[in-house]
Specification:
Blueprint lengths: L2 H18 L7 E3 L8 E4 L4 E4 L1 H6 L1 H22 L8 H10 L15 E9 L4 E4 L1 H8 L14 E11 L2
Parallel strand pairs: 1-3
Antiparallel strand pairs: 2-3, 4-5, 4-6
Length: 166
């Protein structure tokens, strides 16, 4: 765990404790997130997860904005309960009033290309490429129909790995 993420998390909590005049339990922090998300908050278990690749490539902004963004989710949950919108006014107020940061919902970090496996399905009129998730649903019994010919889509047995820009 990079010490800088832990330090920035602590800074955010100190600001919140001064602002609200109360203490907050510190979260578990993991640096094991992959994919497109820079960070994720799990309020019910008081845990933060961060993407190490995006941290390395965007460390200054990541520490300033992303860590505060995820801490704000945990604070909003502790202050206002579970029936709030993830990026609703409670979260926005913490970002603006407590941290003095813009309440940006998404990051704009450049993402590296990724390999994607596509599964070939066919109907009467053409081939359809399915993602791994959709292919797994078919294996569990989900049925898909072609929008054009209304015939069931059937797995051809062919798979293809493509490098995609994100």
């Amino acid at each position: 765990m990079p010490e800088m993420i832990r330090q920035r998390t602590e800074e955010c909590y100190v600001l919140a404790e001064r602002h609200y005049g109360r203490s907050f339990e510190r979260p578990d922090i993991c640096l094991d997130l992959r994919g497109q998300s820079a960070g994720m908050a799990y309020p019910q278990v008081n845990r933060l997860r961060f993407n190490p690749l995006l941290y390395r490539e965007n460390s200054r902004h990541f520490l300033q904005q992303t860590v505060a963004h995820e801490v704000a989710h945990l604070l909003a949950y502790r202050l206002h309960g579970k029936n709030i919108r993830p990026h609703g006014t409670q979260w926005q107020n913490i970002m603006l009033q407590v941290f003095g940061l813009p309440a940006e919902r998404c990051h704009s970090y450049r993402l590296p290309p990724a390999w994607k496996t596509l599964y070939a399905y066919a109907c009467r009129c053409r081939q359809h490429d399915f993602s791994a998730q959709r292919h797994a649903r078919v294996r569990k019994g989900q049925c898909y129909l072609c929008k054009a010919c209304r015939q069931p889509l059937v797995f051809t047995g062919k798979m293809e790995r493509k490098l995609i820009e994100r």
